Amino acid sequence: MRFDLADLRLFLAVFNAGSLTHGARSANLSIAAASERLRDMEASGGLSLFVRTRRGVTPTRAGEALAHHARLILRNVGAMQAELSEHARSIRSTVRLLANTAAITEFLPDRLGSWLAEHPKVDIELAERPSTEIVKALEHGLADIGIVSDAVETAALTALPFATDRLVVVLPRDHPMSAEKQVAFGQILGEDYIGFAGALQDHVDGHAAQSGHRLRPRVRLRTFEGVCRMVAEGVGISILPETAARRCRRTMPITSVRLSDAWARRRLLLCFRAEEELDPTARALMEHLRTPSGKQSS
Asked: What sequence ranges are listed for the domain HTH lysR-type (predicted)?
């Protein structure tokens, strides 16, 4: 059973009109040509699509089923043609950007806002992923640009400095460790913990596992502000980027203490396969992102 788009358009024209004559006219075909096409469709499928009477045509059950699918097919074809036409005229383009938690929540909103405002016909397909997954996606051509921690291997990619991300322990102000200048990760492993539902938590969990421990969060939240609110209520402590903790300290009764572990101070890297492989739009975004905007944490 093989129908082309012209067949489906003719079939729907006849179906909607309930008449071969009016349907043929809508499809800009003679009655004879339209009748022959419909007979060929029925012969190809080995079924009857219409019952023909003196008053017109009535669809069979097979005809009803074909009408449903023909509408979907032609609607999707129309949408596809419209979208491809936009791209062909360079009306819109899309850059695929993957980033870890710290980049996507603390740095990219400021850096992307001005660029997107200046490029109204560019869309950014932004997704949060762990750094290891971002590197693999870039290596396999599944993303244009990535922002990762320097803790992962990036030798197969071009990697440029993007920002510094320092992790801190977030505590209630009256917590016994709140007066410390810094604490080691091992010191907090016995504390009630508030988790973050994102790639950052995977990073922290990985280091807990390396030390032979497992964090068991009392709850996992999707925003840094939500985590800090729980800490302020005395539910537990957490580990967050210093920029997020500093922001929350302005409105909540919490404090933060830097982690002394080396892995808690991460350089974020802007990565891509090779500059010559980036299309002009992705290259323009890369050049914008590689230029620091605003003061970064040290």
From this structure: 3-60
Compute the distance between CA of residue 198 and CA of residue 216 in angstroms, rounded to an integer: 15
Largest Cα separation within the chain, whole Å, is 94
Tens digits of per-residue pLDDT, 181-196? 999 999 999 899 999 9
121 part of a folded domain: yes
Structure tokens that stand for 77 in this block = 């074809």
Question: What integer is the mean pLDDT of 135-144?
Answer: 92
Whether the CB-CB separation of 171 and 255 falls below 8 Å is answered with: yes
End-to-end CA distance of the chain: 67
Say whether both 9 and 98 belong to one domain: no
DSSP codes of every residue in 16-49: HHT-HHHHHHHTT--HHHHHHHHHHHHHHHTS--
Give whichever of 1-15, 259-273, 284-298 has the largest mean pLDDT: 259-273
Which domain, by its residues, includes 16?
5-88
- 212 dihedral zone (left: phi>0; alpha: psi -120 to 50; beta): left
Residue 203 pLDDT level (bands cut at 50, 70, 90) = confident
**CA pair distance 223, 234, nearest whole angstrom:** 17
Other C-beta atoms closer than 10 Å to the C-beta of 16 total 13
Question: What single string gives the DSSP state of each residue in 252-278?
Answer: SSEEEEEE-SGGGEEEEEEEES-GGGS
Give the pair of three-digit tokens for residue 202: 């995977």
Q: What is the pTM of this model?
A: 0.62
CATH assignment of the domain containing 55: 1.10.10.10
Residues 142, 282: one domain?
A: yes
